[in-house]
């Protein structure tokens, strides 16, 4: 009995329960009860992935702590905060100007049938062709391909 106490010193309850279950299911390859070293080896086989995960977790934690220690911490001064705020406000103002210019350009674009016809006529004339709306046939493939033929 003392041999089992010595062999199982430091083994977790989970490791012993799982190893015992595996032994009873025939993992050792023989029918008789295991010796203390065999039981310890089976417990270590059960605990190996858990212990390896603990080692990895500890190593990753140590690396994260070292990185956090080495990372410089930026302190905001009133001057730096004012510079950052001014830069951000300038960027927002530029975005507003860009949006306003895009909306103005979009508003100037005439999407009415007359405006579209005028643009098609100008495109046809610039290509040296005569524009005649009656020559445009309806195409089942889509209106964009048909309009492209007119110009």
From TrEMBL:
It comes from the Bacteria. Residues 62-95, 127-137 have a biased composition (Basic and acidic residues). Residues 140-151 have a biased composition (Polar residues). Residues 62-114, 127-151 are annotated as: Disordered. This is Uncharacterized protein. It comes from Falsochrobactrum tianjinense.
């Amino acid at each position: 009995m003392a041999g089992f106490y010595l062999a199982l010193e430091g083994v977790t309850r989970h490791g012993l329960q799982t190893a015992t279950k595996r032994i009873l299911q025939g993992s050792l390859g023989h029918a008789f009860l295991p010796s203390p070293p065999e039981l310890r080896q089976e417990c270590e086989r059960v605990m190996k992935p858990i212990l390896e995960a603990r080692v990895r977790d500890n190593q990753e934690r140590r690396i994260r702590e070292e990185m956090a220690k080495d990372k410089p911490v930026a302190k905001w001064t009133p001057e730096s905060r004012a510079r950052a705020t001014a830069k951000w406000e300038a960027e927002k103002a530029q975005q507003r100007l860009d949006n306003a210019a895009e909306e103005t350009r979009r508003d100037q674009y005439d999407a009415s049938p007359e405006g579209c016809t005028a643009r098609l006529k100008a495109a046809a004339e610039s290509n040296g062709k005569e524009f005649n709306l009656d020559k445009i046939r309806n195409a089942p493939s889509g209106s964009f391909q048909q309009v492209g033929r007119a110009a």
